[in-house]
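Tutorial handout. Part one gives the primary structure; part two gives the three-dimensional structure as tokens.
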Amino acid sequence: MTHNTFGHIFRVTTWGESHGPALGCVVDGTPPGIPLTEEDLQVWLNKRKPGTSKFVTQRREPDAVKILSGTFENDGALGPVTTGTPISLMIENIDQKSKDYSDIRDKYRPGHADFTYQAKYGVRDYRGGGRSSARETAARVAAGGIARKVLTHVLAREVTIRAALVQMGPHKIDHANWDWAEINNNPFWCPDPQAVITWDSYLTDLRKAGSSCGAVVEVVADGIPAGLGAPIYAKLDAEIAAALMSINAVKGVEIGNGFYAASLSGEANADEMRMEDDTPSFLSNNAGGVLGGISTGAEIVARFAVKPTSSILNPRKTVTKDGEEVDVATKGRHDPCVGIRAVPVGEAMVACVLADHALRHRAQVGDGSE
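Part two.
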């Protein structure tokens, strides 16, 4: 299997399978001298790990990350710091139940990558999907923790990257109720306390019925200066979109107004400008913080749509690898809405892209970031 690496200077290579002994990643391109401990990464993994509520898979994984290389206790004053060499991270799998998948050993789950993996490689790991499982994203979240540290180090400013679930199934939040403080007060990472009530009832019914639903996640990066990105083939928004599309089950991405921009007039969509503290400032942010593939200094806003989980209890028509027409129902522990745990994954992927572009920007134009 090729293409397990993304990024140019800040490069992440993930490895491992859902039901293997461990998974992890190798992060290359991190500058030396950045304080980094396992605790710095664990805080982000704890947001993604399974078993945190009744609305996510009940697989019990601590997702404890281990740093195997790339840091060194210099003089002890700062603790471990990065050495500039590849950082290898490992997360052990301790609660895999492969027998839950014995019934689908030869059956393709509709909507899943089972068929395409078999068609391409002639073999597939049916235990939880192997490499196609969303379990792989744990390594991305760990890498995203390093990316956040790199951003602060390279840009010499505070950068905040946050995400929230803004739609579950057909139920959208009311943006007038948006409160970032609310995302830690409910199991959905929802910024609208009123939407939580509807989502709780909706997902409870779906879960009991053995079904699943999709979701939309919004990611916002604040503190990014103007100037990151490079036209024509390294546009910041294009690489953010590619990174988010690479997340398991994602079927669509938009930046700023996205598809809604097609319904607006030029006057309505244009982000007008004025001077503020001797710096150009935008009166709106329809562009989502990117113009011409280069950051504007405004918040970078991206949304991605996650399809319903393919592993459901209700029987669906399918075929086996031998061509037999059968029905399939998936037992085991699955997320009724995989979009919930995609929230920290979206944050991590945006962090990795921004760290990569910050390093590329410094390489081309020096330390000045504006």
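Part three, for discussion. The CA atoms of residues 319 and 326 lie 5 Å apart. The chain has a mean pLDDT of 92.
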